[in-house]
Design goal:
NAD; ATP-binding; 3 domains; 6-stranded mixed beta sheet; about 40% helix; ligase; Nitrilase/N-carbamoyl-D-aminoacid amidohydrolase; about 625 residues; NAD_synthase; alpha/beta; Rossmann fold
Protein backbone atom coordinates (compact mmCIF):
# COMPACT_ATOMS: atom_id res chain seq x y z
CA UNK A 1 0.00 0.00 0.00
CA UNK A 2 1.04 3.58 -0.68
CA UNK A 3 -1.32 5.60 1.48
CA UNK A 4 -1.71 9.34 1.01
CA UNK A 5 -3.81 11.64 3.16
CA UNK A 6 -5.44 14.38 1.13
CA UNK A 7 -6.68 17.65 2.58
CA UNK A 8 -9.14 19.80 0.62
CA UNK A 9 -9.46 23.38 1.89
CA UNK A 10 -12.18 25.98 1.39
CA UNK A 11 -11.04 29.51 2.20
CA UNK A 12 -13.35 32.52 1.94
CA UNK A 13 -11.08 35.07 0.26
CA UNK A 14 -11.51 38.69 -0.80
CA UNK A 15 -10.15 40.05 -4.07
CA UNK A 16 -7.04 42.08 -3.32
CA UNK A 17 -6.78 41.14 0.37
CA UNK A 18 -3.50 39.26 -0.16
CA UNK A 19 -2.27 39.13 3.44
CA UNK A 20 -5.67 38.28 4.91
CA UNK A 21 -6.23 35.57 2.32
CA UNK A 22 -2.90 33.97 3.13
CA UNK A 23 -3.52 34.29 6.87
CA UNK A 24 -6.70 32.26 6.49
CA UNK A 25 -4.92 29.68 4.36
CA UNK A 26 -2.07 29.38 6.88
CA UNK A 27 -4.53 28.72 9.67
CA UNK A 28 -5.87 25.73 7.77
CA UNK A 29 -2.39 24.64 6.64
CA UNK A 30 -1.23 24.44 10.27
CA UNK A 31 -4.20 22.31 11.20
CA UNK A 32 -3.69 20.01 8.23
CA UNK A 33 -0.02 19.57 9.03
CA UNK A 34 -0.88 18.71 12.63
CA UNK A 35 -3.09 15.92 11.26
CA UNK A 36 -0.27 14.59 9.05
CA UNK A 37 -1.99 15.54 5.83
CA UNK A 38 0.25 14.51 2.93
CA UNK A 39 -1.08 16.94 0.29
CA UNK A 40 -3.10 20.06 1.12
CA UNK A 41 -5.05 21.49 -1.81
CA UNK A 42 -6.29 25.08 -1.84
CA UNK A 43 -8.25 26.94 -4.50
CA UNK A 44 -7.56 28.86 -7.68
CA UNK A 45 -6.38 32.47 -7.14
CA UNK A 46 -6.10 31.88 -3.40
CA UNK A 47 -3.78 34.84 -2.85
CA UNK A 48 -5.32 37.40 -5.19
CA UNK A 49 -8.95 36.34 -4.96
CA UNK A 50 -11.33 35.56 -7.81
CA UNK A 51 -12.49 37.08 -10.09
CA UNK A 52 -9.76 39.76 -10.25
CA UNK A 53 -11.03 41.02 -13.63
CA UNK A 54 -9.02 44.00 -14.91
CA UNK A 55 -7.19 44.49 -11.61
CA UNK A 56 -4.53 42.22 -13.05
CA UNK A 57 -3.64 45.02 -15.45
CA UNK A 58 -2.08 46.79 -12.46
CA UNK A 59 1.47 45.52 -12.13
CA UNK A 60 1.28 45.80 -8.36
CA UNK A 61 -1.78 43.57 -8.17
CA UNK A 62 0.18 40.70 -9.70
CA UNK A 63 3.69 41.39 -8.40
CA UNK A 64 2.58 41.83 -4.80
CA UNK A 65 1.16 38.31 -4.69
CA UNK A 66 4.63 36.77 -4.83
CA UNK A 67 5.84 38.00 -1.40
CA UNK A 68 2.72 36.49 0.14
CA UNK A 69 3.39 33.17 -1.59
CA UNK A 70 6.93 33.24 -0.21
CA UNK A 71 5.52 34.01 3.25
CA UNK A 72 3.24 31.00 2.98
CA UNK A 73 6.28 28.88 2.05
CA UNK A 74 8.35 30.23 4.97
CA UNK A 75 5.64 29.70 7.54
CA UNK A 76 5.01 26.12 6.39
CA UNK A 77 8.72 25.21 6.07
CA UNK A 78 8.69 22.79 8.99
CA UNK A 79 5.53 20.99 7.87
CA UNK A 80 5.76 17.48 6.43
CA UNK A 81 3.04 18.41 3.93
CA UNK A 82 2.99 19.41 0.27
CA UNK A 83 0.66 22.32 -0.48
CA UNK A 84 -0.81 23.45 -3.78
CA UNK A 85 -2.36 26.93 -4.01
CA UNK A 86 -3.37 29.49 -6.60
CA UNK A 87 -1.31 32.57 -7.49
CA UNK A 88 -0.95 34.97 -10.43
CA UNK A 89 2.47 35.81 -11.87
CA UNK A 90 3.74 38.16 -14.60
CA UNK A 91 6.53 36.75 -16.75
CA UNK A 92 8.08 38.32 -19.85
CA UNK A 93 5.14 40.63 -20.40
CA UNK A 94 2.52 37.90 -19.94
CA UNK A 95 0.30 37.12 -16.97
CA UNK A 96 -0.40 33.56 -15.88
CA UNK A 97 -2.98 32.09 -13.50
CA UNK A 98 -0.95 29.39 -11.78
CA UNK A 99 -0.99 26.52 -9.36
CA UNK A 100 2.02 26.85 -7.05
CA UNK A 101 3.54 23.74 -5.46
CA UNK A 102 5.01 24.54 -2.03
CA UNK A 103 6.93 22.27 0.36
CA UNK A 104 9.90 22.44 2.69
CA UNK A 105 9.83 26.23 2.79
CA UNK A 106 10.22 26.56 -0.99
CA UNK A 107 8.09 27.24 -4.02
CA UNK A 108 8.97 24.17 -6.07
CA UNK A 109 7.15 25.01 -9.28
CA UNK A 110 4.40 26.95 -11.03
CA UNK A 111 1.94 25.36 -13.45
CA UNK A 112 -0.11 27.84 -15.56
CA UNK A 113 -3.76 27.39 -16.40
CA UNK A 114 -4.21 26.32 -20.03
CA UNK A 115 -7.95 26.53 -20.71
CA UNK A 116 -9.06 30.14 -20.31
CA UNK A 117 -12.87 30.46 -20.42
CA UNK A 118 -14.49 33.50 -22.01
CA UNK A 119 -18.09 32.32 -21.90
CA UNK A 120 -20.87 33.14 -19.45
CA UNK A 121 -19.49 35.07 -16.50
CA UNK A 122 -15.83 34.37 -17.32
CA UNK A 123 -13.27 36.72 -18.88
CA UNK A 124 -10.02 34.85 -18.20
CA UNK A 125 -8.90 35.04 -21.83
CA UNK A 126 -9.11 38.82 -21.67
CA UNK A 127 -6.60 39.16 -18.85
CA UNK A 128 -4.40 36.05 -18.72
CA UNK A 129 -2.15 34.13 -21.10
CA UNK A 130 -2.36 30.38 -21.57
CA UNK A 131 0.06 27.80 -20.41
CA UNK A 132 1.08 25.53 -23.30
CA UNK A 133 2.14 21.91 -23.74
CA UNK A 134 5.89 21.61 -23.34
CA UNK A 135 6.23 25.06 -21.75
CA UNK A 136 9.41 25.28 -19.67
CA UNK A 137 10.37 28.66 -18.24
CA UNK A 138 11.91 29.96 -15.04
CA UNK A 139 10.30 32.65 -12.90
CA UNK A 140 12.39 34.13 -10.06
CA UNK A 141 14.43 30.95 -10.04
CA UNK A 142 11.32 28.75 -9.89
CA UNK A 143 10.39 26.33 -12.72
CA UNK A 144 7.30 27.58 -14.58
CA UNK A 145 5.46 25.50 -17.12
CA UNK A 146 4.12 22.08 -18.05
CA UNK A 147 5.58 20.07 -15.17
CA UNK A 148 5.08 17.07 -12.90
CA UNK A 149 6.44 16.65 -9.38
CA UNK A 150 7.79 13.47 -7.80
CA UNK A 151 7.54 13.18 -4.01
CA UNK A 152 8.12 10.26 -1.69
CA UNK A 153 4.46 9.26 -2.05
CA UNK A 154 4.24 9.40 -5.87
CA UNK A 155 3.97 11.69 -8.90
CA UNK A 156 1.73 14.76 -8.62
CA UNK A 157 0.21 16.91 -11.38
CA UNK A 158 -1.36 20.30 -10.74
CA UNK A 159 -3.89 22.10 -12.89
CA UNK A 160 -6.32 25.01 -12.59
CA UNK A 161 -10.14 24.96 -12.82
CA UNK A 162 -11.18 24.93 -16.50
CA UNK A 163 -8.34 22.53 -17.35
CA UNK A 164 -10.40 19.68 -15.89
CA UNK A 165 -13.60 20.43 -17.82
CA UNK A 166 -12.10 19.77 -21.24
CA UNK A 167 -11.46 16.15 -22.33
CA UNK A 168 -8.51 17.57 -24.25
CA UNK A 169 -7.03 19.28 -21.21
CA UNK A 170 -3.54 18.79 -19.80
CA UNK A 171 -4.62 15.81 -17.68
CA UNK A 172 -4.28 13.45 -20.64
CA UNK A 173 -0.61 14.07 -21.37
CA UNK A 174 0.29 14.39 -17.68
CA UNK A 175 -1.21 11.08 -16.65
CA UNK A 176 0.30 9.43 -19.73
CA UNK A 177 3.62 10.90 -18.57
CA UNK A 178 3.35 9.31 -15.14
CA UNK A 179 1.11 11.47 -12.94
CA UNK A 180 -0.85 9.38 -10.46
CA UNK A 181 -2.41 12.14 -8.38
CA UNK A 182 -3.97 15.15 -10.16
CA UNK A 183 -4.93 18.13 -8.01
CA UNK A 184 -7.25 20.73 -9.47
CA UNK A 185 -7.50 24.21 -7.99
CA UNK A 186 -10.85 25.68 -8.91
CA UNK A 187 -12.94 28.83 -8.65
CA UNK A 188 -16.18 27.51 -10.09
CA UNK A 189 -19.20 29.68 -9.22
CA UNK A 190 -22.34 28.23 -7.72
CA UNK A 191 -25.07 27.45 -10.20
CA UNK A 192 -28.23 25.52 -9.48
CA UNK A 193 -27.52 21.81 -10.02
CA UNK A 194 -23.83 22.43 -10.72
CA UNK A 195 -22.58 20.23 -7.87
CA UNK A 196 -24.01 17.14 -9.60
CA UNK A 197 -22.34 18.13 -12.88
CA UNK A 198 -18.98 18.65 -11.15
CA UNK A 199 -19.20 15.29 -9.45
CA UNK A 200 -19.98 13.51 -12.71
CA UNK A 201 -17.29 15.34 -14.71
CA UNK A 202 -14.61 14.61 -12.14
CA UNK A 203 -15.59 10.93 -12.06
CA UNK A 204 -15.40 10.85 -15.85
CA UNK A 205 -11.93 12.40 -15.96
CA UNK A 206 -10.62 10.11 -13.22
CA UNK A 207 -11.93 7.08 -15.12
CA UNK A 208 -10.77 8.27 -18.55
CA UNK A 209 -7.21 8.89 -17.40
CA UNK A 210 -7.02 6.27 -14.62
CA UNK A 211 -5.81 8.61 -11.91
CA UNK A 212 -6.75 9.94 -8.51
CA UNK A 213 -8.23 13.44 -8.64
CA UNK A 214 -8.40 15.87 -5.73
CA UNK A 215 -10.54 18.89 -6.57
CA UNK A 216 -10.87 21.93 -4.29
CA UNK A 217 -13.24 24.80 -5.04
CA UNK A 218 -13.30 28.44 -3.97
CA UNK A 219 -15.65 29.66 -1.27
CA UNK A 220 -17.38 32.99 -0.77
CA UNK A 221 -18.98 35.72 -2.84
CA UNK A 222 -17.23 38.49 -4.76
CA UNK A 223 -19.10 40.99 -6.94
CA UNK A 224 -22.23 38.89 -7.16
CA UNK A 225 -20.46 35.65 -8.06
CA UNK A 226 -21.05 33.06 -5.37
CA UNK A 227 -18.56 30.24 -4.82
CA UNK A 228 -19.92 27.33 -2.80
CA UNK A 229 -16.59 25.76 -1.83
CA UNK A 230 -16.48 22.03 -1.31
CA UNK A 231 -14.35 19.49 -3.10
CA UNK A 232 -14.13 15.93 -4.37
CA UNK A 233 -11.70 13.05 -4.26
CA UNK A 234 -12.19 10.40 -6.91
CA UNK A 235 -9.94 7.44 -7.60
CA UNK A 236 -10.03 6.01 -11.11
CA UNK A 237 -13.74 6.81 -11.45
CA UNK A 238 -14.77 5.74 -7.94
CA UNK A 239 -15.96 8.45 -5.51
CA UNK A 240 -13.84 8.47 -2.37
CA UNK A 241 -14.92 11.57 -0.46
CA UNK A 242 -16.82 14.82 -0.84
CA UNK A 243 -16.12 18.00 1.11
CA UNK A 244 -19.18 19.84 2.45
CA UNK A 245 -20.09 23.06 0.64
CA UNK A 246 -20.93 26.53 1.94
CA UNK A 247 -18.56 26.35 4.90
CA UNK A 248 -15.00 27.42 5.53
CA UNK A 249 -12.61 24.71 6.64
CA UNK A 250 -11.00 21.59 5.26
CA UNK A 251 -11.77 17.93 4.79
CA UNK A 252 -9.43 14.94 4.73
CA UNK A 253 -9.49 11.45 3.25
CA UNK A 254 -6.92 8.70 2.68
CA UNK A 255 -6.31 7.04 -0.69
CA UNK A 256 -4.00 4.21 -1.74
CA UNK A 257 -2.05 5.30 -4.83
CA UNK A 258 -0.95 1.72 -5.43
CA UNK A 259 -4.58 1.04 -6.28
CA UNK A 260 -4.44 3.70 -9.01
CA UNK A 261 -1.40 2.06 -10.61
CA UNK A 262 -2.87 -1.41 -10.28
CA UNK A 263 -6.06 -0.37 -12.04
CA UNK A 264 -3.97 1.05 -14.87
CA UNK A 265 -2.34 -2.28 -15.44
CA UNK A 266 -5.75 -3.96 -15.52
CA UNK A 267 -7.41 -1.48 -17.86
CA UNK A 268 -6.43 -2.57 -21.35
CA UNK A 269 -8.21 0.37 -22.99
CA UNK A 270 -6.18 2.87 -20.97
CA UNK A 271 -2.98 1.01 -21.82
CA UNK A 272 -3.82 1.02 -25.53
CA UNK A 273 -4.71 4.70 -25.49
CA UNK A 274 -1.48 5.44 -23.64
CA UNK A 275 0.61 3.53 -26.17
CA UNK A 276 -1.11 5.28 -29.10
CA UNK A 277 -0.58 8.70 -27.52
CA UNK A 278 3.12 8.07 -26.87
CA UNK A 279 3.59 6.83 -30.42
CA UNK A 280 1.73 9.80 -31.95
CA UNK A 281 3.16 12.57 -29.77
CA UNK A 282 6.41 11.51 -28.25
CA UNK A 283 6.01 14.45 -25.86
CA UNK A 284 6.43 13.51 -22.24
CA UNK A 285 5.90 16.03 -19.47
CA UNK A 286 9.12 16.33 -17.42
CA UNK A 287 9.03 15.21 -13.79
CA UNK A 288 10.87 17.33 -11.22
CA UNK A 289 12.43 15.25 -8.47
CA UNK A 290 11.28 16.73 -5.14
CA UNK A 291 11.89 13.67 -3.00
CA UNK A 292 14.69 15.35 -1.05
CA UNK A 293 12.70 18.50 -0.30
CA UNK A 294 10.21 17.05 2.16
CA UNK A 295 9.61 13.75 3.92
CA UNK A 296 5.91 13.23 4.45
CA UNK A 297 4.52 11.43 7.50
CA UNK A 298 2.45 8.51 6.31
CA UNK A 299 3.41 5.73 8.68
CA UNK A 300 0.34 6.38 10.85
CA UNK A 301 -2.15 6.26 8.00
CA UNK A 302 -4.65 3.42 7.85
CA UNK A 303 -6.30 1.82 4.85
CA UNK A 304 -9.55 3.62 3.93
CA UNK A 305 -12.28 1.14 4.83
CA UNK A 306 -16.02 1.90 4.44
CA UNK A 307 -17.49 3.59 7.51
CA UNK A 308 -20.53 1.29 7.40
CA UNK A 309 -18.31 -1.80 7.51
CA UNK A 310 -18.93 -3.43 4.15
CA UNK A 311 -17.15 -3.36 0.80
CA UNK A 312 -20.19 -4.85 -0.94
CA UNK A 313 -23.27 -3.30 0.65
CA UNK A 314 -24.30 0.31 -0.03
CA UNK A 315 -23.70 2.91 2.62
CA UNK A 316 -26.74 4.51 4.31
CA UNK A 317 -28.49 6.96 1.97
CA UNK A 318 -28.03 10.43 3.45
CA UNK A 319 -28.98 12.32 0.31
CA UNK A 320 -31.52 15.12 0.59
CA UNK A 321 -34.73 15.09 -1.40
CA UNK A 322 -34.68 17.01 -4.65
CA UNK A 323 -36.91 19.70 -3.13
CA UNK A 324 -34.73 20.16 -0.05
CA UNK A 325 -31.50 20.13 -2.06
CA UNK A 326 -32.74 22.78 -4.50
CA UNK A 327 -34.18 25.09 -1.86
CA UNK A 328 -31.35 24.79 0.65
CA UNK A 329 -28.69 25.30 -2.02
CA UNK A 330 -30.35 28.46 -3.33
CA UNK A 331 -30.95 29.84 0.15
CA UNK A 332 -27.40 29.02 1.28
CA UNK A 333 -25.95 30.61 -1.85
CA UNK A 334 -27.99 33.81 -1.64
CA UNK A 335 -27.41 34.26 2.09
CA UNK A 336 -23.68 33.78 1.53
CA UNK A 337 -23.83 36.37 -1.26
CA UNK A 338 -25.63 38.90 0.93
CA UNK A 339 -23.33 38.31 3.89
CA UNK A 340 -20.08 38.51 1.97
CA UNK A 341 -21.15 41.69 0.18
CA UNK A 342 -22.10 43.21 3.53
CA UNK A 343 -18.86 42.17 5.25
CA UNK A 344 -16.26 42.47 2.49
CA UNK A 345 -17.19 45.93 1.28
CA UNK A 346 -16.76 47.14 4.90
CA UNK A 347 -19.01 50.09 4.07
CA UNK A 348 -22.19 49.13 5.95
CA UNK A 349 -23.40 48.71 9.52
CA UNK A 350 -26.90 47.34 9.00
CA UNK A 351 -29.15 46.06 6.20
CA UNK A 352 -32.48 47.58 5.21
CA UNK A 353 -35.46 46.37 3.21
CA UNK A 354 -38.59 48.10 1.95
CA UNK A 355 -40.96 45.41 3.19
CA UNK A 356 -44.16 45.59 1.17
CA UNK A 357 -46.00 42.56 2.51
CA UNK A 358 -45.45 40.85 -0.85
CA UNK A 359 -43.53 37.78 -1.86
CA UNK A 360 -40.32 39.30 -3.22
CA UNK A 361 -39.47 41.54 -0.29
CA UNK A 362 -40.44 38.73 2.10
CA UNK A 363 -38.01 36.30 0.50
CA UNK A 364 -35.27 38.95 0.47
CA UNK A 365 -35.81 39.55 4.20
CA UNK A 366 -35.70 35.82 4.97
CA UNK A 367 -32.45 35.43 3.03
CA UNK A 368 -30.84 38.36 4.82
CA UNK A 369 -32.06 36.98 8.16
CA UNK A 370 -30.56 33.58 7.32
CA UNK A 371 -27.17 35.28 7.02
CA UNK A 372 -27.77 37.33 10.17
CA UNK A 373 -28.47 34.17 12.19
CA UNK A 374 -25.01 32.93 11.29
CA UNK A 375 -23.23 36.25 11.79
CA UNK A 376 -25.01 37.35 14.96
CA UNK A 377 -26.82 34.34 16.45
CA UNK A 378 -27.61 36.12 19.71
CA UNK A 379 -29.63 38.85 17.94
CA UNK A 380 -29.95 38.35 14.17
CA UNK A 381 -32.78 40.84 13.86
CA UNK A 382 -30.46 43.56 15.13
CA UNK A 383 -28.61 43.51 11.80
CA UNK A 384 -31.78 44.31 9.84
CA UNK A 385 -34.32 47.09 9.44
CA UNK A 386 -37.71 46.78 7.74
CA UNK A 387 -39.74 49.74 6.45
CA UNK A 388 -43.37 49.54 5.39
CA UNK A 389 -44.30 52.57 3.26
CA UNK A 390 -48.03 52.49 2.48
CA UNK A 391 -49.97 54.58 0.00
CA UNK A 392 -53.74 54.76 -0.60
CA UNK A 393 -53.49 51.50 -2.54
CA UNK A 394 -51.81 49.48 0.21
CA UNK A 395 -54.07 46.93 1.88
CA UNK A 396 -54.48 46.12 5.54
CA UNK A 397 -53.60 42.52 4.69
CA UNK A 398 -50.14 43.35 3.37
CA UNK A 399 -49.39 45.63 6.31
CA UNK A 400 -50.43 42.87 8.72
CA UNK A 401 -48.28 40.33 6.84
CA UNK A 402 -45.21 42.60 6.86
CA UNK A 403 -45.63 43.45 10.54
CA UNK A 404 -46.14 39.81 11.48
CA UNK A 405 -43.00 38.47 9.80
CA UNK A 406 -40.88 41.32 11.17
CA UNK A 407 -42.12 40.52 14.67
CA UNK A 408 -41.46 36.78 14.23
CA UNK A 409 -37.90 37.46 13.05
CA UNK A 410 -37.22 40.12 15.68
CA UNK A 411 -36.53 42.74 13.00
CA UNK A 412 -37.20 46.42 13.88
CA UNK A 413 -40.23 47.52 11.85
CA UNK A 414 -41.31 51.04 10.94
CA UNK A 415 -44.38 52.30 9.14
CA UNK A 416 -43.52 55.36 7.02
CA UNK A 417 -46.54 56.48 4.93
CA UNK A 418 -45.88 58.10 1.54
CA UNK A 419 -49.41 59.45 0.97
CA UNK A 420 -48.64 63.10 1.65
CA UNK A 421 -45.52 63.03 -0.52
CA UNK A 422 -47.47 61.16 -3.21
CA UNK A 423 -50.09 63.91 -3.42
CA UNK A 424 -47.38 66.55 -3.59
CA UNK A 425 -45.48 64.78 -6.38
CA UNK A 426 -48.68 64.23 -8.34
CA UNK A 427 -49.43 67.94 -8.21
CA UNK A 428 -45.88 68.85 -9.25
CA UNK A 429 -46.13 66.44 -12.19
CA UNK A 430 -49.39 68.07 -13.33
CA UNK A 431 -47.73 71.49 -13.12
CA UNK A 432 -44.82 70.32 -15.24
CA UNK A 433 -47.32 68.98 -17.78
CA UNK A 434 -48.92 72.44 -18.04
CA UNK A 435 -52.07 71.27 -16.33
CA UNK A 436 -52.22 67.97 -18.19
CA UNK A 437 -53.16 64.75 -16.43
CA UNK A 438 -50.62 62.25 -15.11
CA UNK A 439 -50.83 58.84 -16.77
CA UNK A 440 -51.77 55.79 -14.65
CA UNK A 441 -48.32 54.26 -15.10
CA UNK A 442 -46.67 57.49 -13.91
CA UNK A 443 -48.94 57.45 -10.85
CA UNK A 444 -47.61 53.99 -10.04
CA UNK A 445 -44.00 54.97 -10.70
CA UNK A 446 -44.21 57.97 -8.38
CA UNK A 447 -45.05 55.67 -5.47
CA UNK A 448 -42.17 53.31 -6.26
CA UNK A 449 -39.69 56.18 -6.60
CA UNK A 450 -40.74 57.78 -3.32
CA UNK A 451 -40.06 54.52 -1.52
CA UNK A 452 -36.66 54.11 -3.16
CA UNK A 453 -35.70 57.71 -2.38
CA UNK A 454 -36.52 57.21 1.28
CA UNK A 455 -34.53 53.99 1.41
CA UNK A 456 -31.52 55.79 -0.10
CA UNK A 457 -31.88 58.63 2.41
CA UNK A 458 -31.96 56.10 5.24
CA UNK A 459 -28.98 54.26 3.74
CA UNK A 460 -26.86 57.38 3.39
CA UNK A 461 -27.45 58.48 6.98
CA UNK A 462 -27.34 55.12 8.75
CA UNK A 463 -24.56 53.32 6.88
CA UNK A 464 -27.23 50.83 5.82
CA UNK A 465 -27.08 48.37 2.94
CA UNK A 466 -30.23 48.95 0.87
CA UNK A 467 -31.29 45.56 -0.48
CA UNK A 468 -33.19 45.56 -3.78
CA UNK A 469 -36.01 43.03 -3.80
CA UNK A 470 -37.15 42.53 -7.43
CA UNK A 471 -37.27 39.08 -9.06
CA UNK A 472 -35.93 38.01 -12.45
CA UNK A 473 -39.24 37.35 -14.21
CA UNK A 474 -40.74 40.80 -13.66
CA UNK A 475 -37.41 42.48 -14.30
CA UNK A 476 -37.12 40.66 -17.64
CA UNK A 477 -40.32 42.22 -18.96
CA UNK A 478 -39.85 45.67 -17.41
CA UNK A 479 -42.49 45.22 -14.70
CA UNK A 480 -40.39 47.47 -12.51
CA UNK A 481 -39.59 51.16 -12.08
CA UNK A 482 -36.30 52.87 -12.87
CA UNK A 483 -35.46 54.99 -9.85
CA UNK A 484 -38.01 52.99 -7.86
CA UNK A 485 -38.23 49.29 -7.03
CA UNK A 486 -35.42 48.60 -9.52
CA UNK A 487 -33.04 50.50 -7.24
CA UNK A 488 -30.84 49.36 -4.35
CA UNK A 489 -27.21 48.64 -3.57
CA UNK A 490 -27.45 44.85 -4.01
CA UNK A 491 -30.12 42.92 -5.92
CA UNK A 492 -30.61 39.77 -3.88
CA UNK A 493 -33.18 37.80 -5.92
CA UNK A 494 -32.79 39.55 -9.28
CA UNK A 495 -31.82 36.23 -10.87
CA UNK A 496 -34.53 34.15 -9.19
CA UNK A 497 -37.61 33.49 -11.36
CA UNK A 498 -40.99 34.30 -9.83
CA UNK A 499 -42.09 30.66 -9.79
CA UNK A 500 -38.94 29.82 -7.83
CA UNK A 501 -39.63 32.69 -5.42
CA UNK A 502 -43.01 31.16 -4.64
CA UNK A 503 -41.54 27.64 -4.43
CA UNK A 504 -38.94 28.81 -1.91
CA UNK A 505 -41.58 30.55 0.21
CA UNK A 506 -43.73 27.41 0.26
CA UNK A 507 -40.67 25.47 1.40
CA UNK A 508 -39.78 28.02 4.08
CA UNK A 509 -43.34 28.00 5.37
CA UNK A 510 -43.10 24.22 5.76
CA UNK A 511 -39.74 24.48 7.52
CA UNK A 512 -40.42 27.43 9.82
CA UNK A 513 -44.18 27.70 10.22
CA UNK A 514 -43.91 31.49 10.24
CA UNK A 515 -47.36 33.05 10.26
CA UNK A 516 -45.99 36.02 8.32
CA UNK A 517 -45.20 33.78 5.34
CA UNK A 518 -48.67 32.26 5.43
CA UNK A 519 -50.27 35.70 5.42
CA UNK A 520 -48.20 36.87 2.45
CA UNK A 521 -49.04 33.77 0.42
CA UNK A 522 -52.75 34.13 1.18
CA UNK A 523 -53.00 37.19 -1.06
CA UNK A 524 -52.47 37.19 -4.88
CA UNK A 525 -49.09 38.61 -5.92
CA UNK A 526 -49.26 42.25 -6.97
CA UNK A 527 -47.37 45.52 -6.45
CA UNK A 528 -50.34 47.44 -4.91
CA UNK A 529 -49.62 50.58 -6.92
CA UNK A 530 -53.22 50.71 -8.18
CA UNK A 531 -56.61 49.39 -7.04
CA UNK A 532 -56.86 45.58 -6.89
CA UNK A 533 -53.64 45.11 -8.84
CA UNK A 534 -52.67 41.50 -9.58
CA UNK A 535 -49.37 40.78 -11.34
CA UNK A 536 -50.53 37.75 -13.30
CA UNK A 537 -53.54 39.65 -14.64
CA UNK A 538 -51.37 42.49 -15.91
CA UNK A 539 -48.65 40.23 -17.34
CA UNK A 540 -49.57 36.57 -17.74
CA UNK A 541 -49.56 33.50 -15.48
CA UNK A 542 -46.13 33.29 -13.91
CA UNK A 543 -45.45 29.67 -15.02
CA UNK A 544 -46.01 30.76 -18.62
CA UNK A 545 -43.93 33.90 -18.13
CA UNK A 546 -41.01 31.90 -16.75
CA UNK A 547 -41.32 29.32 -19.52
CA UNK A 548 -41.21 32.12 -22.09
CA UNK A 549 -38.13 33.57 -20.44
CA UNK A 550 -36.33 30.22 -20.46
CA UNK A 551 -37.18 29.42 -24.07
CA UNK A 552 -36.42 32.89 -25.44
CA UNK A 553 -33.43 34.01 -23.36
CA UNK A 554 -32.06 30.59 -22.45
CA UNK A 555 -32.77 28.35 -25.41
CA UNK A 556 -32.68 31.25 -27.91
CA UNK A 557 -35.91 30.24 -29.66
CA UNK A 558 -37.86 32.67 -31.82
CA UNK A 559 -41.56 33.27 -30.97
CA UNK A 560 -42.93 30.67 -33.39
CA UNK A 561 -40.69 28.01 -31.87
CA UNK A 562 -41.61 29.17 -28.38
CA UNK A 563 -45.28 28.76 -29.17
CA UNK A 564 -44.76 25.18 -30.37
CA UNK A 565 -42.96 24.29 -27.11
CA UNK A 566 -45.49 26.07 -24.88
CA UNK A 567 -48.42 24.39 -26.64
CA UNK A 568 -47.04 21.06 -25.43
CA UNK A 569 -46.29 22.37 -21.95
CA UNK A 570 -49.63 24.17 -21.41
CA UNK A 571 -52.25 22.26 -23.45
CA UNK A 572 -55.05 23.66 -21.26
CA UNK A 573 -54.42 27.22 -22.53
CA UNK A 574 -56.25 28.08 -25.75
CA UNK A 575 -53.99 28.59 -28.75
CA UNK A 576 -54.81 32.24 -29.43
CA UNK A 577 -54.23 33.24 -25.82
CA UNK A 578 -50.94 31.37 -25.68
CA UNK A 579 -49.77 33.01 -28.89
CA UNK A 580 -50.63 36.38 -27.41
CA UNK A 581 -48.56 35.62 -24.32
CA UNK A 582 -45.56 34.72 -26.50
CA UNK A 583 -45.82 37.90 -28.56
CA UNK A 584 -46.27 40.00 -25.43
CA UNK A 585 -43.26 38.49 -23.71
CA UNK A 586 -40.97 38.92 -26.72
CA UNK A 587 -42.02 42.54 -27.19
CA UNK A 588 -41.68 43.45 -23.51
CA UNK A 589 -38.35 41.66 -23.08
CA UNK A 590 -36.62 43.44 -25.95
CA UNK A 591 -38.15 46.79 -24.98
CA UNK A 592 -37.01 46.41 -21.37
CA UNK A 593 -33.29 45.81 -21.86
CA UNK A 594 -32.65 49.49 -21.24
CA UNK A 595 -34.22 49.05 -17.81
CA UNK A 596 -32.48 45.99 -16.51
CA UNK A 597 -29.01 47.11 -17.59
CA UNK A 598 -29.44 49.93 -15.05
CA UNK A 599 -30.16 47.58 -12.18
CA UNK A 600 -27.72 47.23 -9.26
CA UNK A 601 -25.17 44.48 -8.82
CA UNK A 602 -27.01 41.16 -8.56
CA UNK A 603 -26.28 37.75 -7.10
CA UNK A 604 -25.80 34.93 -9.62
CA UNK A 605 -27.20 31.47 -9.10
CA UNK A 606 -27.73 30.13 -12.63
CA UNK A 607 -26.41 30.01 -16.15
CA UNK A 608 -29.20 32.33 -17.30
CA UNK A 609 -28.92 35.67 -15.54
CA UNK A 610 -30.03 39.19 -16.39
CA UNK A 611 -26.66 40.87 -16.14
CA UNK A 612 -25.21 42.49 -19.22
CA UNK A 613 -21.66 42.40 -17.87
CA UNK A 614 -21.77 38.80 -16.68
CA UNK A 615 -24.13 36.62 -18.64
CA UNK A 616 -26.65 37.84 -21.21
CA UNK A 617 -24.90 40.50 -23.28
CA UNK A 618 -27.60 42.11 -25.39
CA UNK A 619 -27.61 45.48 -27.16
CA UNK A 620 -29.84 48.08 -25.55
CA UNK A 621 -30.74 49.71 -28.88
CA UNK A 622 -32.28 46.94 -30.95
CA UNK A 623 -35.32 46.04 -33.03
CA UNK A 624 -37.63 43.05 -32.72
CA UNK A 625 -37.99 42.69 -36.51
CA UNK A 626 -35.73 39.62 -36.52
CA UNK A 627 -38.17 37.69 -34.30
CA UNK A 628 -40.85 37.57 -36.99
CA UNK A 629 -41.07 34.64 -39.39
Amino acid sequence: MRLVKMGLASVNVTVGAFARNVDRALEQARQMAAEDVTVGVFQEALIGGYPPEDLVQWRGFVENQWPQLERFARETASFATVFVLGVAVAHQGLRYNCAAIVAGGRVLGLVPKEKLPTYGIFYDGRTFSRGTPGMRETYRGVPLGDLLFRFDFGVLAAEVCEDIWSPDGPMRRRTYSGAELVVNLSASPFRVGQSDSRREQIATRAADFQCTIAYSNALGSNDGLIFDGGGYINQNGKPVAEEPRFRQGYFTAVVDLDRTLRLRTENTTWRSDHEAWVHANGLRVPILDCTQVVTTRREGLRYPVPAHGSFFLPSPDTRRSGREALCEDILDALSLGVGDYFEKTRAFKVMGIALSGGRDSLLTLLIAHRYAKRARPENPGGLLRAFYMPSRYSSDATRDAAETIARELGVPFQVVPIEEAFDREMEIARTMLGGGEVTPITEQNIQARLRAQRMWNWSNSSGGLFLQTGNMSERAVGYTTIGGDLMGALAVIANVPKTVVMYLLDYLLEQTGYEGIRKVLAKPAGPELAHNQVGEEELMPFPILDACFFLFAGEKLVPSEMFDALAVMFPQVESARLKGYVEKFSRLFLQSIYKWVQAPLSLHIGNLDLDRERALQLPVVTSSDWTRD
